[in-house]
Amino acid sequence: MMDAVFAEHGRDADVWRRLDELGLVRLTGAEDSGGSGAGWMEAAELLSAAVRHGVRIPLAEHDLLACWLLDSVGVACDQATRTVCVLDERGVATAVPWASRAGRIVVVWPHDGGYAVADVAVDALAITPGANMIGEPRDTVTADLTTLDGVAVSSDLLAQLRLRSALVRSIQVCAALDRALELSIEHTTSRHQFGRPLSKFQAVQHQIADIAAEAALARSATESALSVATASDWSSPSLEFLVAAARSCTGHAATVVVRNAHQVHGAIGTTSEHRLHVFTRAALAWRSEYGSVRYWDEVLTGMAVQSGANGLWGLICP
């Protein structure tokens, strides 16, 4: 099953196996259940490294979301590759990452006035393949809710799943923006025009400065949310505000970084042979997943208004 993933994206078919042997596929899992016992900070570094090297595999979906949720409700997580989705009342979930390439899918669905979760084999579900703009599987999953048998899951755990999912994409977008900055600096310092490097032109310097500033703002907001999440074990009352701020910043930063990076690269940056589009298109794709930029802008604005003048500072600096 994983061979199809790597074949589709041009990766070494042994990457997932090698990562598994190194204990990186289940990086944050408990050691007594086959994991490596690491935390979100280490996982964030691994995700960022994967993005920087153009490796597109479901590390976050498997470890940080699906297996974490199973662990949280006391269900064993074996070596099968997993993703997670939340079904609606019809038993349908859309744009599910990697569903058509997973071995099992952790499904959450409305049940008895609350929610239930189950670890389901893919052949027990109907999966309609789809993809995002960079070719990663984003599939429609359909289940017969009457046949599912699961474990009750609390609303707090589902809320945490939502924030975890959103922060995963923020981490990935930041890594893509940082790589676009690096490529832009490399290009403008190595290419010459009118007898001097492009980086010596003031207009180009301004564009690079804007890329660097926006990427730094996005990373600062994301690291702030991640720091509070890990320090509070995802229980801080201000965490949703900080995640919303991170997603808003990364989403808007992507617009500036992608525009400026392609401008300073010129025509070469639009070719399929150049690496720039691997990161700019990824940033644009990921910023719209697990909540669009507009959605997180509205969450951020709503919480800021609701907190009032006396409560806003406490949200910003918990």
UniProtKB/TrEMBL annotation:
Cofactors: FAD
Superkingdom of origin organism: Bacteria
Chain ranges of the Acyl-CoA dehydrogenase/oxidase C-terminal domain: 169-287
Protein keywords: FAD, Flavoprotein, Oxidoreductase
Matches recorded under InterPro entries: AcylCo_DH-like_C, AcylCo_DH/oxidase_C, AcylCoA_DH/ox_N_sf, AcylCoA_DH/oxidase_NM_dom_sf
Pfam families: Acyl-CoA_dh_1
Gene3D superfamilies assigned to the protein according to its UniProt record, in alphabetical order: Acyl-CoA dehydrogenase/oxidase, N-terminal domain, Butyryl-CoA Dehydrogenase, subunit A, domain 3
Listed PANTHER family: ACYL-COA DEHYDROGENASE, ACYL-COA DEHYDROGENASE FADE28
Family of the protein in this entry: Belongs to the acyl-CoA dehydrogenase family.
Full protein name: Acyl-CoA/acyl-ACP dehydrogenase
The species this protein was found in: Mycolicibacterium iranicum
